[in-house]
Amino acid sequence: MHYEIELFRAKIFTGGVDIGAWSKLSKKDKKEALSKNWYVYYSFRDPITGKLKRQTNIKAGVNLYKDKRSRIHILTQLKESLEYVLSKGFNPYEDNSSLAEFIEKILSPEKSEIKNTPTHEETPVYLKKRLYKKHQSSPLLIHLLT
Asked: What is the pTM of this model?
């Protein structure tokens, strides 16, 4: 079942501060914001209750970076990638064997099943290259495969 894209607008949590006012923050406030976890979060409709339910925060190692610019860049790409896979039908409540297999299915819709022994075209390196060529604007989608 596909839901409208508006239902899974991902958001970025930036340590509890308004990132638009970053230049107006004191050095202490900036340091405090960077000491907190930053992440992407979203809600998805629970198939049992029919209500939107907040999903697990996605950090993807972004908090290893100690500057605002790097964190925002990575989280923005991650947010766009998440919205893309959700718009293509990825559902955190269904048995999506893995996100990597789901992405492979998107890239090769003519294949009805995944074989036990991958061909050259099915290897992770080849898929990453193909995915990167197809979605260069969202390189963190590739990161989701690893």
From this structure: 0.64
